[in-house]
Specification:
207 residues, ATP-binding (chains A, B), alpha/beta, homodimer
């Protein structure tokens, strides 16, 4: 048996906040943490690997998994479906691996509703003007897309109140430090350390 | 207004676990943290200062404070009373100071029952034999006292299940690291960072 249960770390943010970079750095820095691989119905692209980038499945199987309550969260994006598997996640967590779920606000709501034991972190930009200049300077979106993202940002940011922790992405290093601190602390939760605690208690004489 | 609410960190352990040393090191290492000063009816001893070591009050005032629900926890020890004040704690927390409460298991129960927002950590020794040899080697207790402490240890250690976090005091430095990590993470809770979050949200245009 693993010495502890893994932490399911849910991370959400308004788009343009730099969440993907943060998650990437966190994965690079910490051991025993892995990125949760989603299921999807979309076609595999060149350079992608099944089971590494996504679990590629067909629509029939995806819908059957919806029907059997197998998704912690799923979404329809441009007619393709994406979802986080429940049993695959629970198996990893039971074996003591921490899982990072990089999901949007809708996904965060579903994970909370699923009743699974998750730790949620909301990443905020230091301010709206900073978010705006970041979105404009990364140059990967059209002006229209930037405008759409900015228009949605307030509603997304308001969702912070439903999360456990908030990290402000002002400086990348300190934001990654904060994510690492949250994960390290959550590993010490009594609810995740049954085996460690029991091992120690078993050395005590009965009263 | 302070940028965040302080964390009320409750720390308990079976006696002999080295909790006082841990708390001392944590206070030395971290800023904005202070030790919660208790109220007591016992006489001030040489070298002690009112308001620093304890708030020294008479029995009449202590009992009036019990009556008005002013204690988060209190106890009778050898006919003298000791208690943690509610309003003094809440004031410090509201001003963004973290408070450390080094209390026994009975005190821990009362704090939980008080409904105050506290974070509780239980410190365990690595094993019963280690606890026994530590108690014997520190030489500050009579054989009878050691025997009493050891007889109570199992019942005390079982209380870990009611706490939020568990820290195993195997190596002092790493145990202090873990306490510091817990405190740092809890400072990032959404529930304690209302002002920070509101400041950021206020820079966003309304939807």
């Amino acid at each position: 048996m693993a010495a502890r249960k893994g932490v399911l770390l849910v991370i959400s943010a308004p788009s343009g906040t730099g969440k993907s970079t943060l998650v990437h750095e966190l994965l690079r820095r910490m051991e025993d943490v892995e990125f949760s691989v989603s299921f999807t119905t979309r076609k595999m692209r060149e350079g992608e690997a099944d089971g590494l980038d996504y679990h590629f499945i067909d629509r029939g199987r995806f819908d059957a998994m919806i029907g059997s309550g197998e998704f912690l969260e799923w979404a329809d994006v441009f007619r393709e479906r994406y979802g986080t598997g429940r049993s695959v996640s629970l198996l990893k967590l039971a074996s003591g691996r921490d899982l990072i779920l990089d999901i949007d606000i809708q996904g965060g709501r579903q994970v909370r509703a699923s009743g699974i034991d998750a730790v949620s972190v909301f990443v905020l930009p230091p301010s709206f003007p900073t978010l705006k200049s970041r979105l404009l300077s990364r140059g990967s979106d059209s002006d229209e897309q930037v405008a759409t993202r900015l228009a949605m940002a307030r509603g997304e940011a308001d969702e912070v109140k439903y999360y456990d922790y908030v990290v402000v992405n002002d400086d990348l290093e300190s934001a990654v430090d904060q994510l690492a601190t949250i994960l390290s602390a959550e590993r010490l939760r009594v609810s995740r350390r049954g085996p460690v605690t029991e091992d120690i208690l078993s050395t005590f004489p009965a009263e």
